[in-house]
Amino acid sequence: MKTEDRIYQEALQVATMYYYQGLTTEVIAREMKFSRPKVSRLLSHARATGMVEIRIVNVQSMLSPLEARIRERFGLEAVHIVPTPELMGEVIWLERVARYTANYLNTILDNNLTVALAWGTTISEITANLVPKHLPELTVVQLNGSGNTFTPDNRYAANILQRFAQNYEASAVLFPVPTFFDYRETKDAMWRERSIRRIIDIQTDADVFLYSIGAVDAGVPSHVYSHGYLDPADIAELQREHVVGDLATVFFRADGSWEDIALNKRASGPPLSLYGAGKRSICVVSGRNKVPGLLAALQARLMTELIVDEPTARQLSREAGIAESSENHQL
Q1: Cα-to-chain-centroid distance, residue 6
Q2: Domain 65-330 is in which class?
Q3: DSSP for 157-185?
């Protein structure tokens, strides 16, 4: 028997004994004549390869007080606040949120769905934590272009899409256009091409949208701002326009307005009217500097579901004027 086949069979047997029969690692080690560390490694292998799916079921559908207040204030279908110690810093906050989201996706994704993915720092971290699941009829489509005249290697976005698709054994649809066009007329002409229209139609008809809020000065920098996608003139224009964030490289102000921002006419991301309009629009946010953009997006109803770390959620509640009770600090 090949080594990988032997490991698979051992992991399967150990996982069955542990999860189905309720045996301890000590008992399993004794029965299988393994060391306890080997049993632990096999259990970890079973979880990492998707052999075991761990699902937490909130049988009473109870939310924490802060989750309930945020959901009620902004009319969301769901709010997930990920417990995160504040002192651990924003890198750890993002890791915890990404890991939570990766596991959560396995509970909601199924065959015959299309997921529209906006690439970036947060989504990249999520893909790094995905748990394998066999969904060969799932489709993953890139939501905004990734071409960049300042950085010749534009594999960043493609790698995110490919890793996501490979995790689910799904089909990937890339969007081979620049992140920002030099001229609006060029974009308008490109958008008339049938090959591009086909991809835009797939984006528009997607069942699930997964994205984050981009911010210029985030603690963990947003990729589009830190890797040369915008030149100094673009940054200056965004400052003049009082931009607070972006969704898939389409920018918006604190009041949610976006259509008259000139740079959006050259942006490859979809119109913001696409989000939250009868779609499952999941926004994943981590980091306090993203709160102004998150608050604007919430007030503009640009999402139906929010996944956020606890310190960022508390900052959001303060800026939104959402009262907190002493119960909230028990999250």
Answers
A1: 35
A2: alpha beta
A3: HHHHHHHHHHHHT-EEE---SBSB-S-HH
Provide the residue ranges of all domains of the chain, joining segments of one domain with +.
3-48, 65-330
How far apart CA 309 and CA 101 sit, in angstroms, is 11
Q: Which residues contact 107 (CB under 8 A, 6 or more apart)?
A: 55
pLDDT in tens, 80-126: 999 888 888 899 999 999 999 999 999 999 999 999 999 888 999 99
CB 177 within 8 A of CB 190: yes
pLDDT digits (tens, 9 = 90+) for 31-85: 889 999 999 999 988 888 888 876 666 644 556 889 999 999 999 999 999 988 8
**d(C-alpha 280, C-alpha 304), whole Å:** 6
d(CA 73, CA 86): 24
Separation of alpha carbons 118 and 248, rounded Å: 5
Q: Which CATH class is domain 3-48?
A: mainly alpha
- Of residues 176, 179, 129, the one with CA closest to residue 151: 179
Q: Could you write out the DSSP letters of every residue in 77-137?
A: SEEEEEP--GGG-HHHHHHHHHHHHHHHHHHH--TT-EEEE--SHHHHHHHTT------TT
Contact between 114 and 205 (Cβ < 8 Å): yes
Residue 329 amino acid letter? H
If 0-12 CB within 10 Å is exposed, 13-18 middle and 19+ buried, where does residue 314 land? buried
For the question of whether the overall pTM of this predicted structure is more than 0.85, the answer is no
Instruction: Write out pLDDT tens, residues 271-301.
Output: 999 997 678 999 999 999 999 999 999 999 9
- Asked if residues 245 and 293 have their Cβ atoms less than 8 Å apart, the reply is yes
Write the DSSP assignment of 241-287 as a string of letters. TTEEEEETTEEEETTS--TT-GGGGGB-SPPGGGTTSSSEEEEEE-S
